[in-house]
Each structure stands twice: as structure tokens, then as C-alpha cells.
Amino acid sequence: MNPELGTTIIKLGGAVAASPEACASLWREVATIGGPVVVVHGGGPQATDLARRLGHEPRIVAGRRVTSDLDLDVALYVMRGSVNARLVGSAKASGVNAVGVSGADGGLVGVVRRPPRVIDGETVDFGHVGDVVGVDPALLGALLGAGFTPVVASVCADREGDLYNVNADTVALELAVALGAARLILVAEASGVRRDAADPSTLISRLTPEAIAAGVEAGWIAGGMRPKLEVAREALSRGVPEVRVTSPDAVSDATRGTTIAPEA
């Protein structure tokens, strides 16, 4: 591991984490990066699947999960449990010495409970959903310094030790800023940002923050890609020098996927 290459933060979506083939591709890429790497993951599809198996239909408002007591238990079982453990196990097969942690471990990510918000005229209480108020990267520094690759589940704690479900894109952003990361890579099922999500030939190799805003307004940046690109814009504005959206098998190749950058 060469610290001079700078730290890479990789955010892995739950859908990608559910695919053994995609995970294997990801870890092969991580093994070639050379510098320190931190992987942050969600687990939305897995949490939805387990909730439904328990007879509970999750509620999603404006792309965000309302986290009841049961939803929090599901998030803990899935994200801090099965998804995190399976990612660590998958890493071993590629020779990556990974360690599973959560945002709650070592006071890594501090949060407060999200207050109720008015959305489309309705006041929504998101329950056990946390908003990030601070990051203490000491734990990650210790693990990286010892040659480990941290795999961070986006379950975090407040000052009283209460646990919260936190958006994984947001956790990845905050860790990238706190660690002074050289790059933030958002791994998606698609190979990057497409003007037509169903057509791989419409892949866009470079997007500016202004183009993202225009795409949101025009409606072609929507669904799960919209929050990713909003995180990308904020990361650039807060000093992360390189942000990319790419596929699991292209993490180490800056010429593939979509680079988010200001106008040259």
C-alpha cells in the first residue's frame, strides 16, 4: 500500500453488493489500486427483501427509507450483519485484507436524529434516520495504517449511543472529506451515467456540476442516479478532487465510467 497515491473512497450500492460476481470484480480492482482504500456500502435491496419476508412493507419517501423500530432492526441485521460480512469474505478471495466496521464503531460518524420534514405537503417523520454532524477518522486511520481495508456499513450512532440508519452515499461523502481523499468512486450497476438509462450507448464520459443540475431539471437524471450525482456535486464543492461513477470492474481505470468535474 502506497499512501502517496492518496486515499480512495468507494461507495458500493446494495444491488452491487448482492452480486457475488460484481463483488469479485470490485475486489480484483481494489487489489490493483495500490493506495489506501475505504469501502462504504448500503443494503437497501437486501433490507427490503428481509422486511417483506417478515411481512413488513418498507415505506420510501422521496427516495429515502422511513426507518421504524422494525426497519432499524432489519438494517442492523442486513447492513452491519450479512452484507458487511459477505463483502469482507469476498475480499479475502482477492487477497484484500478487509475489516468490517460501521459508522458507530470508534465514534466514526456522529449523527443526530433527522427532524420531521414536509414533503409534498405531508409532514414525514423518518424515524431512526440520522443526519451526519461529525466524523472522527481515527479508527480508519489506524486500520489503514496497519494495512487493512475498512468496509464501512452505514449504521451510525448519536452522542447517547442510539443507532440510526444513514444514507450510504452521504457517509461516503463525509468520510472522503474528513480523510482528505484523493478520489470518491460511486459504484453503480450501470457502467456510468447514461442519458437514457436503458441504453448503454448513451454513456456520458464527463459531467459538470452545471450539467447535472440541468439534467435533474430536464428529468433525465432521476431515480437512484440523482442522489449519487448530488453527492458528487457536493464532494467537488467540498474539496474532493476526483469523483467518478463507474462499474465494479472499472474502479481502477479513470478512463471508464463518468467523471464529475468542473468545466476545464
Automatic annotation (TrEMBL):
Its EC number is 2.7.2.8. CDD domains: AAK_NAGK-like. GO terms for cellular component: cytoplasm. Its main location: cytoplasm. Keywords: Amino-acid biosynthesis, Arginine biosynthesis, ATP-binding, Cytoplasm, Kinase, Nucleotide-binding, Transferase. It comes from the Bacteria. It holds the Pfam family AA_kinase. Belongs to the acetylglutamate kinase family. ArgB subfamily. PANTHER family: N-ACETYLGLUTAMATE SYNTHASE, N-ACETYLGLUTAMATE SYNTHASE, MITOCHONDRIAL. This is Acetylglutamate kinase.
